[in-house]
Amino acid sequence: MVVGDVMLDREVDGTVERFCPDAPAPVLDVSMVRQGPGGAGLATRLCAAPDVEVTWIGPLAADDDGAAIQRELAAAGITTIALGHEGATRRKTRVRSGGHVLVRLDEGGPGRPTGPVPRAALEAIAAADVVLASCYGAGTTAQPELRRALERRAEHRPVVWDPHPRGGPPVPGCLLVSPNLSEARTAAGRPDDPGDLVAPAVRDLWAAQHAAVTGGAHGAWLAVGDDVIYTPVESVGDGDPCGAGDRFAAAATTAIARGATVPEAITLAVARASEWVASGGAWEFRRSAHTGPAPERDGTTPGPHGPSDTEAQRHTAKEVVERVRGRGGTVVATGGCFDVLHAGHLQSLQAARRLGDALVVLLNSDASVRRLKGAGRPVQTAEDRARLLLGLECVDAVAVFDEDDPSTVLGELRPDVWAKGGDYAGVPLTESELVRGWGGRVVLLPYLEGRSTTALLSDAG
Fold first, then answer.
1. Selected catalytic residue, list 5, 9, 246, 396
2. Which class for 390: exposed (0-12), middle (13-18), buried (19 or more C-beta within 10 A)?
3. Where residue 425 sits, what CATH number does that domain have?
């Protein structure tokens, strides 16, 4: 079930090889025109799947564009329950050439809902497994009858709310709200805060159960209880971001409808939105391949082939921290034993590196690992473990500590961000309070289920 403001999106593509003789304006030779439901209409279209029954509720104009929207939704197997619509259908036309948008033309509207809400709409909201409120500022999510129905719905069953600055705010109790970083900063009145601070702020502001703040190529920050889980984009490449927010919201909603937890849904939604952008966005609806460059390293640190002992000594953790801070950068730290590097380690380390400008790994010494893990551990010396970590593109420095926890070395380095694996969600950590004490942030990273050194060694033995 999707409730929200629909519009008609048109894409006009062509080539520019000359300018107008009477004005300094390019002449577009049109080669292709595409159109389809936009706004909540696109979100609805993206929710449609063979195993998902979708209904859209919102204002629909009685004009040719409105009829075109209804035909395409019906062709995708989507049921529409139309409200009265003020004015002509809102139409957004993007004029493109060479993969770039030259200009956007907005017509029609205002698109506010008119008249009473049909009884069928209220009954459908109450009966749906999951409701996505896809707001595009025309007034559907502010309509009093619909808001009351959504409020009642949120008390008992999942509501996902994709807000808009000019739309009605999310009703209390939503399972998930998903503003982008700009929208979240504006709503929370925190214009300069990073995503991991804004996510819990908007979650509390809107009395939601979870808040996922999307950051485009930077992934998403999910506020869960007292924790924030950061989900990075696996690869970043050029593409068209048009419709990426709808792709994210639709993917999260359908995942929840299929039984996923909210963190699982957000991981999937980030991946789907990334694929959407890389494949060309709304213009290339059905393409899915994507590639992208590796994250940038701090220019002073060893390359992927591993450092010599001299290099490792020269590029100490403290020097890296001072160098990055000196140019106004953000230092991220994470910690662990890293006895046998595996895919779970790699995923967490790559995600941590994307949170700032340098990643320092705090590594348990051999004696520390032995106390924590028992006889037979570590299987690799601290020197070898550090060398392997420094050979990773995402690691900028390693600091070895002898204590049972990294509090001492943390206090010396004072990183801006302390990142831990998502398997620590809900677990109180001494170092978390320490980091927050000097104004640092604590972020949880994606957790790859079933990957652990202990399990690998047990299976091998």
1. 246
2. buried
3. 3.40.50.620
Question: Is residue 449 a part of any domain in this protein?
Answer: yes
**Length of the chain in terms of residues written:** 461
Task: Count CB-CB contacts under 10 A for residue 420.
Answer: 23
- The domain total for the chain is 2
The closest alpha carbon to 444, from 295, 252, 224, 274, belongs to 224
The secondary structure element, H or E, covering residue 384 is helix 382-390
Residues 43 and 84 in one domain: yes
- Give yes or no: 246 in active site: yes
List the beta strands (DSSP E) in 337-440.
358-364, 397-401, 417-421
Domain residue limits at 94 = 2-278
Do 147 and 271 lie in one domain? The reply is: yes
Query: Could you give the angle at which helices 64-75 and 40-47 cross, rounded to 10 degrees?
Result: 20
- Give the contacts of 34 (CB within 8 A, at least 6 positions apart): 10, 11, 13, 283
Within a domain: residue 292?
no
Say if strands 79-97 and 6-19 run parallel, antiparallel, or are unpaired: parallel
pLDDT tens-place string over residues 241-296: 889 999 999 999 999 999 999 999 999 999 999 888 887 877 665 333 222 333 33
Residue with tokens 């139309």: 82
Which region among 35-44, 125-134, 248-257, 286-295 has the lowest average model confidence (pLDDT)?
Answer: 286-295
Mean pLDDT for 383-388 is: 91
Which pairs with CB-CB distance under 8 Å and at least 24 residues apart come from 367-373? 367/402, 368/337, 368/401, 368/402, 368/403, 368/404, 369/337, 369/339, 371/404, 372/337, 372/404, 373/337, 373/339, 373/454
Query: What pTM, to 2 d.p., does this model score?
Result: 0.76
461 exposure class (CB count in 10 Å sphere: 0-12, 13-18, 19+): exposed
Q: Which of 205, 255, 210 is CA-nearest to residue 228?
A: 210
CA atoms within 13 A on the CB side of 51: 5
303 lies in some domain: no
